[in-house]
Amino acid sequence: MSDCDIVRLTSLVRIEADDGVRRTVFIGPVEGGLKIRHGADDIMVITPTSPLGKQLLGKRLNDSVELTVGGNLMAYEIVEIS
């Protein structure tokens, strides 16, 4: 098992929603809500205490997480961890 096998603080995580939309998040210690542009990608910085951060921490590649957003339940699959 490598360090990239588990989502943890400072992980860069790509998730895919049921509708196929992909998002990339960076789990940082502070500055949640900050959006960074890297090439063609937008990376959202989240904290471990955010709802999505809490769901992602400790998960592995191909694990799923669920999050209620605006009253709608969203399911995401972890498709990449770095």
Number of domains: 1
Number of helices: 1
Specify the CATH class: Alpha Beta
Specify the helix fraction band.
Answer: under 10%
SSE pattern: EEEEHEE
Fourth-level CATH superfamily: Transcription elongation factor, GreA/GreB, C-terminal domain
Structural class: mainly beta
How are strands sequenced across the largest beta sheet? 3-4-2-1-6-5
Task: Quote the beta fraction.
Answer: over 45%
What can you see in these coordinates?
This protein is mainly beta. The protein has a single domain (3-81), classed as Chitinase A, domain 3 (Roll). It has one helix spanning 51-56, and strands at 12-17, 22-27, 35-38, 41-46, 64-69, 72-81. A 6-stranded mixed sheet has the order 3-4-2-1-6-5. The model has no long low-confidence stretch (mean pLDDT 91).
Tag the structure with descriptive keywords.
82 residues, mainly beta, 1 helix
Q: Could you provide a short overview of the structure?
A:
This protein has 82 residues and is mainly beta.
Describe the protein's topology:
Blueprint: E1 12-17, E2 22-27, E3 35-38, E4 41-46, H1 51-56, E5 64-69, E6 72-81
Parallel strand pairs: 2-4
Antiparallel strand pairs: 1-2, 1-6, 3-4, 5-6
